[in-house]
Amino acid sequence: IFRVRYRYRYSYGTTIMIIRRLTAASPAVWLIVCQLLSGSCALQVQVCRNKHCCKKAPHLLESVTDLLGAENVATSGCLSNCDQGPNLQFSNDKGKTTSILNYVDGVASAIFQLQESAGAEVPKLLQAAAKVMERVYNTKDPAERQRFLTSVIDKLSADSSLSLSSALAHAYSLRAMAMADQSEWSLAIDDAKKVAMGDLREVATEKTLSSAFRTWVDVEEKRSDDSQSKERALAVLQLWHKNQPKFRSKVKREMEALMNAA
Asked: Cα(111)–Cα(120) distance, rounded to whole angstroms?
């Protein structure tokens, strides 16, 4: 929520994680700390999820999150101006609406409008990473997707200010799926674990985190050379059930179905 990317010793994601843990018991304290560190009202962006905007840019939410971080992005209902969509709305941390951005149909237009109209500061490396991940969605070959995502992961991991970012969590989750599609089971699990169980969990979106758990469970079930795959899949489902309350009903049903399976 606050801009510490270039001002403090710790990376942006690490600072967010530390302060979230220190202020977990008091949302009010969290807000005060954010305001003190920022010195100004920070940018908050809402992405329209109405069916018309989603149809025009199905992955816009993920792209904007890659650019700004999960803590600065939320979803919204229809923002009107449907004929000018996809639309974004940006506001300060007090909830005061500043403006609505129209025709944000991809990463390039999102970068331009967020920087020119909203005054967002988006590092060049995040811009490049978001553009590559946008290509991944349009690439059918899993080996090619893996190659693209590995380049993103290597670059972001090497930058101390972005080594704990929403974009990196997203890249690991997508690469886990690409590896699973190639039956690279162990590598897919390793990437999924980095998101589901590592520090990246603190900066991952709900969708990124659920995708990582989904891939992990699917891989455990598909391992034909492992007699304990069912038990391990259940263990992962239990972790998912614990870590994402929003999906508890769905995960519980899946656990029951797996336990009842022959």
From this structure: 9
pLDDT tens, residue by residue, 150-187: 999 999 999 999 999 999 999 999 999 999 999 999 99
**DSSP class per residue in 183-219:** T-HHHHHHHHHHHHTSGGGGT--HHHHHHHHHHHHHH
Report the amino acid identity of residue 155: K
Give CA–CA dist 262/258, Å, rounded.
8
Distances in Å between the Cα of 76 and the Cα atoms of 65, 72, 114, 128, 173 are 14, 13, 17, 26, 24
DSSP assigned state of 246: G
85 vs 102: CA distance, rounded Å? 5
What number of helices (H) and strands (E) belong to the chain? Answer: 12, 4
Which tens digits make up the pLDDT trace of 89-101?
A: 888 656 566 788 9
Kindly report, residue by residue over 26-64, the tens digit of the pLDDT.
444 444 444 444 444 467 899 999 999 999 999 999 999
Q: Is 75 within 8 Å of 108 (Cβ atoms)?
A: no
Query: Is the separation of the CB atoms in 202 and 17 below 8 Å?
Result: yes
At 109, which amino acid appears? S
DSSP reduced 3-state for 76:
strand
Rounded mean pLDDT of 194-220? 94
Q: Does 120 score more than 50 pLDDT?
A: yes
Strand, helix or coil at 40? coil
Q: Kindly state the tokens that stand for 108.
A: 């390039």
